[in-house]
Amino acid sequence: MTRLTGRALRLTVFVGENDTWHHRPLYSEIVHRAHAAGLAGASVFRGVEGFGASSLIHTLRLLSLSDDLPVAVVIVDTQPRVRAFLLQLDELLTEGLVTLDDCEVIRYTGREDGPGNTDSKGKKSL
Using one digit for the tens of pLDDT, what is the confidence trace for 54-91? Predict the structure, then answer.
């Protein structure tokens, strides 16, 4: 796992919830490949409404019959590592949208015991 702080590249892959790769959800395959490639992080976000190349609106609204909601897979790492991962996406994607954005990563971690670490009531945290 890469620990990342500073300049990075954000890769976002927009696909349909029902898109598959060898009988497995495509978004899951992308996340597992990103993990195997040692990328810093990946998350999947399910949309409540959207449309793409087909111009069909997919929605979560109760009266809609859509069951193929939009899904975004977001991956963040250094530019060379993300660009190298694009080769794997070429193998997986037959349709969808991929965007790349420069970003800055600020990594937060748990605090160690120290003189200034107290809870909201002023008690030292354990």
Answer: 666 666 665 555 567 889 999 999 999 999 999 999 99
CATH classification (class only), 6-105: alpha beta
Exposed, middle or buried: residue 44 (CB in 10 Å: 0-12, 13-18, 19+)?
A: middle
Q: How confident is the model at residue 125 (pLDDT cuts 50, 70, 90)?
A: very low
Spans of all domains in the chain = 6-105
Residue 121 is given by DSSP the state T
Report helix, strand and coil shares of the chain as percent, to nearest 5: 20, 35, 45
More confident residue, 1 or 65: 65
pLDDT at 73: 98
Q: Where are the beta strands (DSSP E) in the chain?
A: 6-16, 20-21, 24-25, 41-46, 49-50, 58-59, 70-77, 97-105
Residue type, 26: L
Map residue 99 onto helix, strand or coil. Answer: strand
